Amino acid sequence: MGRKWNNIKEKKASKDANTSRIYAKFGREIYVAAKQGEPDPEANQALKVVLERAKTYSVPRHIIDRAIEKAKGGSEENYDENRYEGFGPNGSMVIVDTLTNNVNRTASEVRAAFGKNGGNMGVSGSVAYMFDHVAVFGIEGKTEEEVLELLMEADIEVRDILDEEGTIIVYTEPDQFHAAQEAFESVGITEFTVAELTMLAQNDVSLPADALEQFDKMIDALEELEDVQQVYHNVDHGE
């Protein structure tokens, strides 16, 4: 699983380069989590996880507060969570998670982003079975042994751990995201290079240059859609 770190770095770098769009997506996700439960992260596990993820992307406090206040204010704005699965050039696989207040519009836009860039949407389940849902953390200033010992003492199941140029990358079960975060915080680790819930491909594929260029255009088109929250894929961009 360790080789997947390249795709996570690439994904986060892409997000960091598009901060205003990312802040808007987090604002929507925070609003939905706060509206579906208590607006207090200490009483709402889903909201707490979103806020912890937002922290690694340096989402400004005013965006977080505005989304939570909107939920507290009883806004009638509702969003549906939907997942779309599809294929890119050369059989590459893509998962698209959305939050939308207009399912028909979003489905049409996602389908068009696939179709105009050499891809096509598949049926539900056609791709997701080839991905694993995991929590991933990137920690600096610790060794593999120290991180592994810490998580084992906290009864956190470690799926994989590796050292990537001094950054310890550890994968755990998604339902242990918060418990792992608390374990790290108990020893003073509060900053992470990445703290995410993600879908990782079980097997990566490499594309020839022309297909890779087309694939990247397709991913860009999907990520630019207002209703798209996350895009996952199985294409290895190398080092």
UniProtKB/TrEMBL annotation:
Q: Among the record's GO biological process terms, what is one?
A: regulation of DNA-templated transcription
Q: Where in the cell is it found?
A: Cytoplasm
UniProt xrefs under InterPro entries: Integrase-like_N, TACO1_YebC-like_2nd/3rd_dom, TACO1_YebC_N, Transcrip_reg_TACO1-like, Transcrip_reg_TACO1-like_dom3, Transcrip_reg_TACO1_YeeN, YebC-like
Which part of the chain is the TACO1/YebC-like N-terminal domain?
A: 3-74
Pfam families assigned? TACO1_YebC_N (PF20772), Transcrip_reg (PF01709)
Molecular function terms in GO for this entry?
DNA binding
Which GO cellular component terms are attached? Answer: cytosol
Chief location of this protein within or outside the cell: cytoplasm
Q: Which residues form the TACO1/YebC-like second and third domain?
A: 79-235
Keywords of the record, alphabetical order, are: Cytoplasm, DNA-binding, Transcription, Transcription regulation
Q: Family, per the entry? A: Belongs to the TACO1 family. YeeN subfamily.
PANTHER family documented for this protein: TRANSLATIONAL ACTIVATOR OF CYTOCHROME C OXIDASE 1
What's the protein here called? Probable transcriptional regulatory protein CUC15_19025
